[in-house]
C-alpha cells in the first residue's frame, strides 16, 4: 500500500525538479543581462557591412565607440611609460612575423576595427569600430587579408588559393551578441604570430576548453573564468600589458568595490601577498613572495595544453622551393609544421620549462630605429629590467624565444619585410627578400640601404597564464638544488644551491683530520694490545 | 677488584641519547639541505631538520633547567688539574696499558679533558648553532634589523661552521667512548647509568684545595 501511494508523489517531485531546472535554464540568459538582443528591432537588419552593425550598436551604446577608440585595442599604439618610446603593435618589431607595417590588410584581422589596410585609416570614425570581434558568440571570423572585415559574401582569399570564407550572417551574429569570452579574446590572443600558440606559450586554443591541470582558473571543471574575470575591464579599457608588466604587487587582495589604481589582473589582486594558509610551510612559502613571482612556482611549464609554441623561427631559410618551383611545408612526427617556404624553419616546444629572470615590470624594445650590434648576436628584441635581489623586482618565468631575421648590414637595423599581401613584392608570393624588404621598409618609413643579411635575435615573453593546481606547483628541490631551475639566477642566497667553498673545505678537512686522528689512535691501540696484556 | 658506581641518572641518560640522536639527524638532514648528498630531497630535509631542531631546543631548555636546579652545571667547571697526566695518558700511556689517570665519582663524572670539551660544546658550538639556526629560521622578519654586512649567506655560513665543529666533536667523542676497560664499557655505562671502575684505573684524586 505504502509503495503504491508513494509512486505518484515521487513522480510529482521529479516533475517539479525538471520544471524548476527548465525555468532556471530559461532564466539564465536573463540573469546574465537585462537585455535580450535577439528581440531588438534595431538588430533585425539587413546589414551590408560590419560598419552598419556598429551603427546599430551605437544607437543604444552611445559611448561605446569613444571608449574603445581610446584603447590600445584600437590604436595599436602605446607609449612606454618607462622612456616615452612609441610602441604598440602598429610599429613594434618581434622575432615571429616581424612587423605589422605594409601587412595591415592581413594582420589587422586582429584589429577591433574595419578597414585598416594602410596609414590612411580613419581612427576617428566610430563606425569603423568592430563591436562583434569581441562580443560575438560564434560564427564570426575576420579574415586575414580583408583588413578587419569578415567575408560578407562567399569569398576566395587569397584569390586563386582555393580557400573560401563566409558568407557571414551579420544579423544572426548581431542578435546573439554577448560578453567577451575565452573564444573571442582568444581568437586573436591565442593566435598571435600567425598561428595557434605561436607567440606567448601560455596562451593558446587549449584554454578554450581547458581542463583543471592546464589552468585552474579558466578550466571548464575549475573556475571557468573568462579572460575578463581577471582582466576586469572598465570603459572598454582592458588592464594588463606585456610592455609595462605589473611584475611586483606586494599588496593584500583588492576588496570588492574598492577604488584603486592597482591592476586587477595580478595574482595578488585576488589572492593577496600572503596566500599560503595551510600546512607547516605556509609562512615559509609566503616569505618566498619577497623574491618570487607567484607564477614562478605555480606555472611549472608552459604550452601544456597540447598546442606547441614556437621557441625558434629562422627566417633565413625561407624561400626554398620544390622541384616544381612551388613553396612547400615540412611537418614533424606530430603533424606540426617545422618548415614553410614562406616563413623558414621553426623550433617548436611543448611542456616547456621557462627561463627565469629578475623583473621589475619594465621592458625596453629594439625598434626599427635602434642600432643593433650584429657582431654581438643574438640581438635582444626586448630587454626585461630588474635588480637581482631588489625590493622592486621578482624572479619571473619567461619564454625565451630565438629568432633569425633580416637586418640592414649598412644601417645595422632590424628590417620590416613585406610578406603577407598578394602583390608583386610580398615575400610569401614572390620569395624575393630584396623586394620584400624594399616594400616593407618603405611602408614603415625605415631607411634601407639595400644590403641585408640575417641576424639571430632573442625575445622574452612573460609566463603568467596556465596556472596549475596548487599540488602541481614546483617542489622545493626544483630550485634548491645544484642544477635547479634557478641555477643561474643571482641575487639570492639559495640553500641547496649556494655553498661557501672555503668554509666547506675547512669543515670537511677538520672532520677528516679528526677521523684520521682517531683511526690512527685506534690502530695504535690495536697494535699495542699485546703489550698491554703482558703488562 | 672492581667497583660499580651509579654515574648517570635517568634524565642525564635520556638527555644524552636524545641529544645524540637529534644531533645525528640534524647533521644528516642539514648536509642534505646544504646539498652534500641526495639521500633526502630538499623539502623533506628541511621539515626533518626543523622538527629535530625544535625538539633539540626543547631538550636543551629542559637540560639547562636541570643543570641549574641540580647544581650539576658544576661538572663543567674547567680545571687544569692533572691535565698533563690526561694528555700524556691518551698520547702515550694508553698504548702501554697504563692505568687511566682519572677516577670518576658521581660528584666529578668528567675528567679534565672531558670538562673542557663539553664546556666548549655548551659555550661555543651549541650557542653558535642555536643562534644562527634561529636566525636562519626567522630570517625574513630579522632581515630588516640586520646590519648590511649580515645576510642570509653569513648566517648560513656560521650555522654550517657550527655543524662542522659539532661533527668534529662527535667523531672524537664517539671514538673516545671505545677507550674504556673494554671498547663498549663506556657506552654500556651511558645506557645503564652504572660505570664499573676497575682497580687499575682507580687513582684517588688529590684532595681539593680550599
From TrEMBL, chain A:
Signal recorded as keyword: yes
Ranges that cross the membrane: 506-527
Superkingdom field: Bacteria
The keyword Transmembrane appears for this protein: yes
Keywords: Membrane, Signal, Transmembrane, Transmembrane helix
Cross-referenced InterPro entries: Multihaem_cyt_sf, Multiheme_Cytochr_ET, Octahem_Cyt_c
Name of this chain's protein: Tetrathionate reductase family octaheme c-type cytochrome
Taxonomic source organism: Halomonas alimentaria
TrEMBL record, chain B:
One Gene Ontology cellular component: plasma membrane
Gene Ontology biological process: respiratory electron transport chain
Key words of the record: Cell membrane, Electron transport, Heme, Iron, Membrane, Metal-binding, Transmembrane, Transmembrane helix, Transport
Annotated Pfam families: Ni_hydr_CYTB (PF01292)
Keyword Heme attributed: yes
Membrane topology: Multi-pass membrane protein
Cytochrome b561 bacterial/Ni-hydrogenase domain sequence ranges: 8-193
InterPro entries found in the cross-reference section: Cyt_b561_bac/Ni-Hgenase, Di-haem_cyt_TM, Hydrogenase_cytochrome, Ni-dep_Hydgase_cyt-B
Entry GO MF terms: electron transfer activity; heme binding; iron ion binding
Transmembrane parts of this sequence: 14-36, 48-69, 116-138, 158-176
Compartments reported by the entry: Cell membrane
Family to which the UniProt record says this protein belongs: Belongs to the HupC/HyaC/HydC family.
Protein name listed in UniProt: Cytochrome B
Organism whose genome encodes this protein: Halomonas alimentaria
